[in-house]
Amino acid sequence: MGAILMEGLSFSPDDHSYKLEGAPVISVTQALVGGGLVDTSWFTEWARDRGSAVHRAIQLYEADDLDESTIDEHVRPFFNGYLKFRAEYNWQPERSELHVWSKRHQYAGTLDSQGKSNGVKTILDYKTGQLTKPVGIQLTGYALAYAESYHSVITNLLGVRLVGDGTYRVQSYKLNPGVFYAALSIARWKREP
After folding, report:
1. Does residue 116 sit in helix, strand or coil?
2. Around Cβ 51, how many Cβ atoms within 10 Å?
């Protein structure tokens, strides 16, 4: 069952699909995969579930609704890395798991967090795997849709890799609309009959 998020936007958590004004649209992730920027053959169900659990713990923590005693032992080190990042980068989240969309380019997505890092407006993505070049393109897709959805431009894009030893790594990415729109076009072309 889809949930109506904003006027004209709906999201189905069952298959992680979006609709704008009732019509299906490509997600940011589908654009990266369909555009050939991400190889999903390396993804495992276990790693995906772990990443989802880490994201959920962070989301609940940022909403001041997390009982830390419920964090699984496999998730705890990644969460501890988040706490270190939060303190050392003065991370002040404003919105978590935020849906963004572009009516103009017909795509949507859900960014991990938007807030301020050391006082600078930032969009960031948490990863429990490697920080690769396509993460920058993913963040670009979110930033472009965020600008259209919320009428506010954010160009500080950070990938935060949470590591299983309780540490973290941060990678800053530049806005790269040309590559994102190319991937979106290729993904859309591949879907055509």
Report:
1. strand
2. 18
